[in-house]
Write a structure and sequence with these properties.
64% of the residues lie in helices and 0% in strands. It is mainly α.
C-alpha cells in the first residue's frame, strides 16, 4: 500500500473515534469530496485539541497554533511540532485526539495532495481558526461574552470559517454549484452559526464546569440575570427567557442553513444529505432545549437514536424536493421562537495581520434587518470537546 492510500485509510479509521456525527455524514458526500472534507475536519480537530489542552499557557498555545498553521501550509515541517505536543499533552486530552496529533503529518500529506483550490480553501480555514480561537478561548470565563456581536465573532472563527471552506469545496467539485457561489457564500457562515449556537446552548452547563460561558451578557442583563452567578441547581425563569431568545436566533440561522441547502442542485443528493442531517438534528435539539428549560446537562437534551434514524429516513425521502423539505423543516421547528437576524458581514483578517498578531477585527456589521417568518427560504466542535453538531 502506497503512502497516500495508507494515509487515507488512517483518516477513515480515526474519524469515527473523534466524531461520531461526521463519521455518519461525511460518507454521504460524493467520493470526490470525501477525502478533502475528512482531511479538513481532522485538521480543525487538531487545532481544537491544541487549543483545549489546559497545561499550555496562552503564549504556548498561540505559538503551537502558529506552528500548526505553518505546517498545514507547507512552510514548515510538522515533525518538530508533533514531538513537542506529544511531550506536553496531558491525560486531559483524549487518547484518540493524542493519536490524531501523533499522526498529524499523515493528514497534512492528504491535504497537500489535493488540487490547488480545495487545498487553498482548507489552508484559509485553518489560518483563520488558529488566528481567532485564542482570542476567545483565553479570555473565556463564566461571566460570558459581553455582546451578541461577540458571540457572532466567536461562532465565525470556530464554525463560520468551516462553512465558507465547505462552500468552496462544493463549488470546486461542481460547476452547477459554482453558479450559486455568491448566494451560498452569503449564507455559509450563518449555516455554521446555527449549528454552533445549538451546541453552545446544549453544552452551557458543561462549559461552565470548565470555567467558560459563550452566552452574551447583554441578552441576559435585559432579563435581570448575572451570568457569573448561574448554577444549574437554581433555575430562574428569567434565565429561561434569555435562553429562549438565543434559541430564536439559532432557529433563524438554521432557516438560512436550509436556504443554503436548497441552493445545491437536487441531483446532488449526497451533499444535500450531508447538510440536511445536520440541520434536522440541530432543530430537534433546539426543540428539546426549549421544552426542557430546567435541563442541567447536555445529555438531557441530546437527540435520541430513534430521532436520528427518523431524521435520516425523512430527509432521504424528501431530499430532491425543495417544497417537501420546506414543509419538513416547518413541521420540525413548529413552536420554536424566531428572532430577527442582522445583516452579516465576514471580512476576516488579512494573512499579514494574522502573522503580526493583530487584534481580531469585528466580523459582523449588525444592521437592523428584520427577518420575516419565512426569511430562511428565499435567501451552520463546541470547539471544546464537541464535533460541531448537536447529536455527537
Amino acid at each position: 500500500m502506497d503512502s497516500v492510500s495508507s494515509d487515507e485509510v488512517y483518516q477513515d479509521r480515526i474519524l469515527p473515534h473523534v466524531s461520531r456525527t461526521f463519521a455518519l455524514t461525511i460518507p454521504q458526500l460524493p467520493p470526490a469530496l470525501r477525502t478533502a472534507v475528512t482531511s479538513a475536519y481532522l485538521l480543525c480537530r487538531i487545532a481544537d485539541t491544541i487549543e483545549d489542552e489546559p497545561a499550555l499557557s496562552a503564549a504556548e498555545t498561540l505559538s503551537y497554533l502558529q506552528s500548526f498553521k505553518a505546517a498545514v501550509s507547507g512552510s514548515a515541517e510538522s515533525a518538530p511540532l508533533v514531538r513537542e505536543l506529544e511531550r506536553r499533552l496531558t491525560e486531559r486530552t483524549l487518547p484518540e485526539e493524542r493519536d490524531l496529533v501523533r499522526n498529524m503529518e499523515r493528514v497534512i500529506r492528504m491535504t497537500q495532495a489535493l488540487d490547488e483550490r480545495p487545498r487553498a480553501a482548507i489552508e484559509r480555514c485553518v489560518e483563520l481558526m488558529c488566528y481567532g480561537m485564542p482570542h476567545f478561548q483565553h479570555s473565556a470565563s463564566v461571566r460570558g461574552l459581553a455582546r451578541s456581536s461577540d458571540l457572532d465573532d466567536y461562532c465565525y472563527y470556530v464554525a463560520g470559517v468551516v462553512g465558507e471552506m465547505l462552500t468552496e469545496l462544493f463549488c470546486d467539485y461542481s460547476a452547477d454549484i459554482a453558479q450559486q457561489r455568491a448566494p451560498l457564500q452569503s449564507l455559509a457562515a450563518s449555516f455554521a452559526q446555527g449549528l454552533q449556537m445549538t451546541n453552545i446552548l446544549k453544552d452551557v452547563w458543561e462549559d461552565r464546569s470548565r470555567g467558560a460561558c459563550w452566552l452574551p451578557q447583554e441578552v441576559f442583563v435585559r432579563h435581570g440575570i448575572d451570568l457569573a452567578g448561574l448554577a444549574p441547581a437554581r433555575y430562574d425563569a428569567r434565565f429561561g427567557a434569555g435562553m429562549a431568545e438565543l434559541i430564536g436566533v439559532a432557529h433563524a440561522h438554521l432557516r438560512n442553513a436550509l436556504a443554503f441547502t436548497l441552493l445545491i442542485p437536487a441531483k446532488e443528493t449526497g451533499i444535500r444529505r450531508f447538510c440536511l442531517w445536520a440541520i434536522g438534528l440541530a432543530v430537534l435539539t433546539l426543540r428539546k432545549i426549549y421544552r426542557n428549560p430546567r435541563f442541567t446537562s447536555g445529555s438531557q437534551v441530546k437527540v435520541s437514536r430513534s430521532a436520528v434514524a427518523m431524521t435520516r429516513i425523512l430527509t432521504n425521502l424528501t431530499v430532491r424536493s425543495n417544497g417537501l423539505l420546506k414543509i419538513l423543516f416547518t413541521l420540525s421547528a413548529r413552536g420554536l421562537p424566531l428572532a430577527p437576524l442582522p445583516e452579516l458581514r465576514r471580512p476576516g483578517p488579512t494573512p499579514a495581520a494574522a502573522e503580526h498578531g493583530a487584534e481580531p477585527i469585528a466580523l459582523y456589521s449588525r444592521h437592523a434587518t428584520r427577518a420575516q417568518p419565512d426569511a430562511g427560504m428565499p435567501l451552520e466542535r463546541a470547539l471544546r470537546r464537541s464535533d460541531g453538531s448537536p447529536a455527537a
